[in-house]
Write a structure and sequence with these properties.
alpha+beta; 6 helices; 5 strands; 16% strand
Length: 173
């Protein structure tokens, strides 16, 4: 990797750190290519990214961002899981770490707030942004549904009473 490539990699990482809501640092202890591909596919499906970069370049890219606290975690073979949704990357990383013993969570940060392993796991238990949006929409729609049901009920009862009288008149005639 020559100087221009390194500068481009640092610029890309810095831009990525400026855009994301969370960065999770992981340690890869001999993962196979198939396992790495599986992890990347799961990340992509969740709207997150997973990147392995040189620690020195990542530390340089941290300058000028809220993620300066990650500098101490960048030792050894590490990967960076990032996402705009603060929960997406954490969920995928925690789920993948449960099924793969060669993959461990080192820590992370959510903006300027550093996270330890327990913090990343706690973040993974929260509902994602899409789940929260669905709950809000459900809460907004529920009163309208109840109102429509309540307003239709008296009309339905009146219709049943009139129908019963009509049938009674037919039988009497």
């Amino acid at each position: 990797m020559d100087r221009a490539q390194k500068a481009a990699a640092v610029a890309e990482l810095n831009r990525n750190f400026a855009e994301v809501g969370v960065v999770v640092v992981t340690r890869n202890l001999g993962m196979t290519v198939a396992q790495s591909t599986t992890l990347r596919n799961r990340m992509r499906d969740a709207g997150a990214t997973y990147k392995v970069s040189k620690n020195k370049l990542a530390k340089i890219a941290l300058d000028g961002t809220d993620y300066l606290s990650l500098g101490d975690m960048l030792t050894g073979p590490v990967g960076l899981a990032t996402s705009i949704d603060p929960v997406a990357a954490a969920k995928v990383v925690v789920d993948f770490a449960k099924t793969n013993d060669k993959f461990e969570i080192v820590g992370g940060a959510m903006g300027a707030t550093p996270l330890d392993v327990a913090g990343v796991q706690a973040l993974a238990t929260l509902p994602s942004l899409d789940e929260l949006r669905a709950k809000i929409v459900g809460l907004l729609v529920a009163p309208a549904t109840k109102l429509a049901t309540i307003t239709q009920a008296p009309a339905a009862q009146i219709a049943r009473v009139l129908s019963a009288y009509a049938e009674k008149d037919k039988e009497a005639a």
